[in-house]
Amino acid sequence: MSDNKELKGMFVINAYLKSKKFDELYEMIEKAAIDNNISLTLFSNADLPVSNFDESVNELSTNYDFVIFWDKDILLAKYLEAHNMKVINSSNSIEICDDKAKTHFELLKAGIICPKTIVAPMTYDNIGYTNFDFLNNVANLLKFPVVVKERQGSFGMQVYLANDMDELKELVVKHGHNKLIFQEFIKTDNNSDIRVNMVGDKVCTAMKRTAADNDFRSNITNGGTMEKYSVTPQEELICKQVMAALKLDYAGIDLLKDTTGKVYVCEVNSNAHFKNIYDCTKVNCADILMKYIIKKAGDK
C-alpha cells in the first residue's frame, strides 16, 4: 500500500440491534476512521443479501480493502470471505467467540487455563430434557455454587448461579431450550473480574470490574463499578495466547483472579464494546484498531 492511498473499508452492523449503547460504539469507530484518514462505509447485514446468484458482492470486493464485521451474522461473514474480502474479525473467530462452549474447547486445546466447564448434552427444542441424571455429574464435578450460562449471550444477561440441585434443575428446565454450559464458581475479591481490550497482540487498556451488591456478575450493564487496571506480565501473556489461539484481530478478554492469585480466562468477546472502558481509562481502542488496520494493510 502506498503512503498516499486512502484505505476504504466496510463497517457491517446488525440491522435490528438498536440502542444508545451500540450507537455510541458505532460513532466511536466511525470517528476513529475519519481521524486516521480511512473511508468507512456503514452497511447493515440486511443491506447485504447472501445469495448464490447476486453478483453485486463482487463489486464490493473490488471497491473495499477490508470489512470491520461488528455483527454475529456468521453466514454473511463467510459469504464476504468467500468473495475474497478481508473480514476483521474473521468469521471463524467470531463463530468461536459467540459460543462459550466452542471458546473453552479452543482455549483448552491451547493449554490456556479456564474455569472447569461442562457442556450440557444436546437435546431438541421440541423435546427438552426428559431426565436430569447428567446434573449429578455437574454437581459432583463442579460443586455448588455452579455457574450456568447460555452458550450465546452478552453483557452477563444470560449468566446464572445455582446454589443447590433444586436451583440447578430449575435453571435447566427454564432455559433447556437454549444451549447451556456449566462452570465452577471462581471466588474472587468482591466478585470482581478484569476486562482486557486487545488489538492484535497488544494490550490497549484494561479495567477491573466489581459486582454490585447481591450480584455475582461484574458486568457494568448489570450495575457493576469499574476502575482502571494495569495488567501484570502474566496476564498480558495469557491474553496474547488467547488472541493467537482464537486468531483474533481485536477482542475483549475477561480474566478472573482467585483469592490465591491464580488467573483464569472467563470469556472472550470478539466484538467487545469500547465505550465503558474508554470512560474508565480514557484510552480509545477504536483509534488503536484503525492504526492496526492501516499497519496490516501496509504489511501486505
What are the salient characteristics of this protein?
alpha+beta; 35% helix; 10 helices; 300 residues; five-stranded antiparallel beta sheet
Tell me about this structure:
By secondary structure, this protein is α+β, with helices and mostly antiparallel strands. The chain is built from ten helices and 13 strands. The strands form three sheets. Strands 11-10-9-12-13 form a five-stranded antiparallel sheet, sandwiched between helices. Strands 2-1-3-4 form a four-stranded parallel sheet. A hairpin with a 5-residue loop joins strand 12 and strand 13. Helix 1 packs across helix 10 and helix 3 runs antiparallel to helix 4. The N and C termini lie close together (7 Å). The mean pLDDT is 93.
The number of helices is 10
Biggest sheet features: 5 strands, antiparallel
**What topology, given as strand order, has the largest sheet?**
11-10-9-12-13
Distance between the termini: 7 Å
Number of strand elements: 13
What's the overall geometry?
Answer: globular
Structural Rg: 20 Å
Q: Which spans have pLDDT < 50 for at least 5 consecutive residues?
A: none
Helix/strand/pairing class, anyone?
alpha+beta
Helix amount:
25-40%
Beta-strand percentage range: 15-25%
Oligomerization category of the chains in this entry: single chain
Summarize model confidence as the mean pLDDT. Answer: 93
Order of helices and strands: EHEHEHEHHEHEEHEEEEHEEHH
